[in-house]
Amino acid sequence: MKKLSLCLFACCSLLLALTACNGDNPSPVNYTLSLDRPTLGLQVGESFRLVATLTPAAEGGAPFVWTSDNEPVATVADGLVEARAVGTATITVRWSDAAQADCRVTVSENAVAVTGIALDPTTLTLEIGDIRTLTATIKPDDATDKTVAWSSSDPTIASVNDGVVAALAPGNATVTATAGGFSAACRITVEAPQPAAPKIGDYFYSDGTWSDGGLVSIDADGLNPVWAEQKPAPESGKTVVGIVFQTASERIAESDRANGFTRGYVVAVKNAHGPNKPTTSWSFDDQFDCLKNAKTSDVWYWNVNGYYETMTVRDTYGASITQCPAFDWTLNDFPLTAPEGTSGWFLPSTGQLWDMVANLCGHEVAAAMKEWSTQALNAGWGYASETVSYDVIGRFNESLAQLPADAKEELFVTSSEYYSTCSLWASTPCTAGETACIINIGTKGTIELYEEYIDGDCVARPILAF
């Protein structure tokens, strides 16, 4: 019995000893340390206080320890970070040896605010298909953020991408550049593209436009013409009313230039005549005296006043202009309507008829006529005459080759088969009340300045200025 009591006492003593041992050695605690900003951006001179949080909270014990790995860039004291210079630094906070946290600090230059923006140019006129770059200038020069936002008031007319403007359709649009809350604008006007400058041989249409007729190059006075091997066709859907035969400004009458017709002259694709025959008389009035006559080749060359001469006849005769059929058929009954913006049809003067033949009938014709232009040859007596190596009528008709037969009237032989020539009326008289000036061109190579009785039958081929 005594032994049993001793055994129970020993067991109880051991249990108490084990219980007392566990109370003196508690389980270890895992602490974590965090910062309210894992990264931080500052400008030079700025500061920011970081907040460190220990979890779980500890009463008393070691304080937080703050360090920077790049103090020339950023320093830290008790969590207050101060930016010193451009660069990066890592701010570290530690608590005892149990926990730490980092913040990556990036320091940049002080921001310089935008104070204005300007565009160059501020107005711009473009043709459809044009591309132009606008230049945006930000003020001040050292502004930190020079980002520019571009916009167009109507992108269907003028689009813009990073300052590059593309003209898309006729109309007006405003392109705006914005930076830092400031804006600048450029007024854009988009126009339809202007046609290429007209050339000798070009097709001239009823709407007043023109297109390539195949001429590659030509010298002054029709010398050395070069034509495309394949003559272009007229534009589909358009009506050809004439062929451009002169574009040199020095060969355009001063009065025509004064009226705004500066591009040149066009010869009609049809003749002016009555319903019963393809030729017509110049006049039936043997007292005709309202125009000055021209006798010599050099005077013929420099007379480019067909519009003036035609209008003088119109104003002189009025309702009696039927006495002058070539003028009457040209002014009043010509089947081709002159396009708006042109002079209207008139008979060519000697110099304009000269240019029509020289520029559309090949180099040999032009070379012969070039010599006559500086000579005082009596044209009325046939002293200005030459024979070239090709069909001159055929050469002129080549300018009409792509037109359908019902849309044109080719030149043709008006005299006997022996001469095989076509006689073309000028608006200029040769002998007042008796003869008028003509140019003969022939299938056998004839090129000739001549005169014809005013009641004779020749071809009246109207022209217009544009």
Order of strands, main sheet, comes to 20-19-23-24-29
Strand content: 25-35%
Distance between the termini: 148 Å
> How much helicity do the residues have?
10-25%
Question: Taking all residues together, what is the mean pLDDT?
Answer: 92
Q: What shape does the CA trace take?
A: rod-shaped
Largest sheet: 5 strands, antiparallel
Low-confidence parts lasting 5 or more residues at pLDDT below 50? 1-23
Helix vs. strand class: alpha+beta
Provide a count of the helices.
8
C-alpha Rg (nearest Å): 48 Å
Number of strands: 29
Descriptive notes:
It contains eight helices and 29 strands. The protein has 466 residues and is α+β, with helices and mostly antiparallel strands. Helix 6 packs antiparallel against helix 7 (363-372). It is rod-shaped, with a radius of gyration of 48 Å. The termini are far apart.
SSE order and pairing:
Layout: H1 2-24, E1 32-35, E2 39-43, E3 47-49, E4 52-55, E5 64-68, E6 74-77, E7 80-83, E8 87-95, E9 99-108, E10 116-120, E11 123-127, E12 131-133, E13 135-139, E14 149-152, E15 158-161, E16 164-167, E17 171-179, E18 182-191, E19 203-205, E20 210-211, E21 215-217, E22 226-227, E23 240-246, H2 254-258, E24 265-268, H3 297-302, H4 306-317, H5 325-332, H6 350-360, H7 363-372, E25 385-387, H8 392-397, E26 421-431, E27 435-442, E28 446-453, E29 463-465
Parallel strand pairs: 2-9, 11-18
Antiparallel strand pairs: 1-4, 3-7, 5-8, 6-7, 8-9, 10-13, 12-16, 14-17, 15-16, 17-18, 19-20, 19-23, 21-22, 23-24, 24-29, 25-28, 26-27, 27-28
Helix pairs in contact: 6-7
